Amino acid sequence: MGLGYSDLHVYFYSKKDQAYGSGYTVTPTQKTFEGCSDFQVITHAISFTKPDDGLNYNVLLYDGYDNKTEGNYVFGYYYPRNPNEVIKQVDVYYSVLAPNVPLVISFVTKGDQNYNCVPQDLKDAGWDRAYKITEYNSFKSLSKIILDGEYNKLSRKRKIKFTIGKEKVDIFADKQELGNDKSYRFIFTPKGNLSVLGSNYMFAINFNSNEPICPDDPDPEVPRDCKRLQVYKKCTQTNKNSQEKCRENLDILAFRKSLKYDTKHPNKIDEYFLRSFTGELYDGIIVYFEKKKARRPKQYCGLHEYNNNKVLLLEFIESSKPKKHLKRKDSEGYCWVEDSIKYTSDTELSTCLGEIQQGLDQNAVTVIIDEKRQYNGLEGFESGGTNKVCKKYTYKFNKANNPIIVFARSTISITAKGLKDVKAKHVEVYYLNAGGKEDTQPFLIVFDEKGDGKEKKNNKPYHFTNSEKFEEWKPFEFKNGEENLKDEKLIEKLELKIKQIETNGGCIPNLTLLRWYAHEILIGKEPDPPTKEEEVTPQKPKPFDPPPKEETLPIWLIVGCVAAGVVLIVTLVVVYGIYWYNTTIKLLT
């Protein structure tokens, strides 16, 4: 199309590898959209061997990766007439939830003009001349609102409802590499009007159907082409003379026999860490993984390997709200915290994931002090027994390790400097109870290194300071004269104080007073035991007797009084008439 013009190819899906052509180079770079990490922009910068040669090139867009896998032709920008019409870069905008579907394609010219085009308009046109590109300019500038609108057209405003458990309804699942061959993500988006994703379905995908799977689901079937590949690989290990026979026999066997992938399902998150997300509606949910080795599995037949790696981060996306993240804290996957992760590119995101991986606690036990049940990571759990005032909860682990303390889905520090040289196999957490109401925070924690209930010399108790700040907690101490009690003697003294709180605190009716009283005992001030108020047995009120009915006058008396009154009034009128006549009429006449 045009004598003297050459074709310059831009491949949408090439997001990190340079593309070279005769006299030009296309260099892709990736970053998040300014002010909103829900969207990405891939910039394909064009440079020419001879800077003035841009007038000699048509720019052709393909939805492929390179000249070997070009994909489908999208649009051709033809015949630039002057330097201001030469394309210097093509910006392609994506949602992170649909990383292979362009929302907007922007042509940037050397004249610093931006033409923001809807991909479907370009596909429908097929090609056009450079000077007519203005006809396809749909937006003067781009914003989050515009990109949200374009994504809503793509998704039809569908949402995912997140739940805890094994529920799955109309979910599309896909994976995407982050570009460093070390990290990747699973992307879950709705494909129905009532899509639901349960927490058990977040960590594995059936790549044959692009649907999530959970540990209770059967492993996916190995596709036929992959079975044949396995047969040929096995037969190459035999001698050359028998390879053909081997292939023939195994090929028949492979298609008769059902072969399935081995999905290990190594990831699980306790429901405690997911409760703040459950029941909410999201545009999509992304799960980030870290590979053991920085390599990509063989495409198609090796995709199942993506299911067997460690999860580092969950990302919940709702366009009307900031992103929410859940970050892994330990190597075993028992501790997670809600945190804000900020990044402007996949490179920065990969760095964040690397930092999460490096920061994982290797030798730790997770103590969730506001979760009073058996949760993931516990070998055993005991509830508080029959005590009315001091309720004890015991968290048991299979071996002693450094405790990570979690409260309200965040890790907390006990004392200002944290726990030093503390290991625990059992952890006893004490709560106060007054008037039938249990406190929202504990007042005492004992770290038991041995966990056998006998040897207590290495037990480390810490108590509150009657405030809600855990960093103000103190180690339990007691002086016998000038001597600081240690080891078993210190624990024996603590047990006596717990009994004292239990005995004397039973008559304290509210938590505020009980907290003060318990703190005074723990620090050795020994307040006077409170006196129990006498209970007054309520008595049934006496029956109400109505007042006696008033006695009325006899009727004859009432009639007589009325008649007397009438006579009196008439008499007064007559007397007044005579008086008026004598004093007024006579004088006038």
UniProtKB/TrEMBL annotation:
Keywords of this entry: Membrane, Transmembrane, Transmembrane helix
Residue ranges crossing the lipid bilayer per the database entry: 555-581
Superkingdom as given in the UniProt entry: Eukaryota
Sequence segments annotated as region (Disordered): 525-547
Compositionally biased intervals (Basic and acidic residues): 525-537
Keyword Membrane on entry: yes
Protein name as annotated: Uncharacterized protein
Originating organism: Theileria orientalis strain Shintoku
